[in-house]
């Protein structure tokens, strides 16, 4: 076994068993929970590399589970939603979910998304130490206008004060800071940060940018760092800070 633990929380037994079977084929360790209450208990008892979270669950729904998890953890969270739960998707993203997939889904798409999140988590997290001094992440941090993004410790600080980011927020800010003054469309951002060519809903990018602005901008309603380029997309105005 790899030692990579994943929690699957869904009230549908067939989905839990399907995901568990495919994840274990990839040599991951998969635990399952059939409701939100059980998911929270398991998350308290052990450390997970990623959590797959159904939005609609009994006892405690996925949005509330995500909200509570984000109070203490930045673990990547992938939410499963039905196609008619658009508002709930946005709420889930706004409180810290990193990604979502709509039901019915392709199991291969889910596994691909999980692998993409795990790759980023491993590269940006504690396993950076494996390549020590020869790793680019070990050699530098990205800095701009009071922001410091430490690629070794997976932390961000603003004017010397550390600010917690989710895994997806960290990856998004890293992408912007490594491409200052370049303008990107939502599709281009999604392709690079979410590692997928299929942008199902551009609200995914917009919600994450809105969340990130609240953490790094002096006035999120008048952003100076992540700037909207009307009719095109966004850019990181690092050179002007």
Automatic annotation (TrEMBL):
PROSITE patterns: OMPR_PHOB (PS51755), RESPONSE_REGULATORY (PS50110). This is DNA-binding response regulator. Signal peptide: none annotated. The keyword Transcription regulation applies. It comes from the Bacteria. One of its GO terms (cellular component) is cytosol. InterPro entries: CheY-like_superfamily, OmpR/PhoB-type_DNA-bd, Sig_transdc_resp-reg_C-effctor, Sig_transdc_resp-reg_receiver, WalR-like, WH-like_DNA-bd_sf. Residues 139-238 bind DNA. One of its GO terms (biological process) is regulation of DNA-templated transcription. SUPFAM superfamilies: C-terminal effector domain of the bipartite response regulators, CheY-like. It comes from Paenibacillus chitinolyticus.
């Amino acid at each position: 076994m790899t030692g990579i633990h994943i929690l699957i929380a869904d009230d549908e037994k067939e989905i839990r068993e399907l995901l568990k079977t495919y994840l274990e084929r990839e040599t991951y360790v998969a635990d399952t929970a059939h409701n939100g209450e059980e998911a929270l208990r398991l998350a308290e008892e052990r450390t997970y590399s990623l959590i797959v979270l159904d939005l609609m669950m009994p006892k405690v729904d996925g949005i509330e589970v995500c909200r509570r998890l984000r109070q203490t953890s930045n673990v990547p969270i992938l939410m499963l939603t039905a196609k008619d739960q658009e508002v709930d998707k946005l709420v889930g993203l706004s409180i810290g979910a990193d990604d979502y997939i709509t039901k019915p889904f392709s199991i291969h798409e889910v596994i691909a998304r999980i692998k993409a999140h795990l790759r980023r988590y491993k590269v940006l997290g504690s396993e950076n130490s494996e390549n020590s001094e020869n790793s680019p992440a070990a050699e530098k941090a990205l800095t701009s206008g009071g922001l410091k993004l430490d690629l070794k410790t997976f932390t961000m600080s603003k004017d010397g004060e550390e600010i917690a980011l989710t895994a997806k927020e960290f990856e998004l800010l890293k992408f912007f800071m490594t491409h200052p003054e370049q303008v990107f469309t939502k599709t281009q951002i999604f392709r690079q940060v979410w590692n997928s060519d299929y942008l199902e809903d551009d609200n995914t990018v917009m919600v994450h940018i809105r969340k990130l602005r609240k953490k790094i901008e002096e006035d999120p309603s008048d952003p100076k760092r992540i700037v909207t380029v009307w009719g095109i997309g966004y850019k990181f105005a690092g050179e002007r800070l």
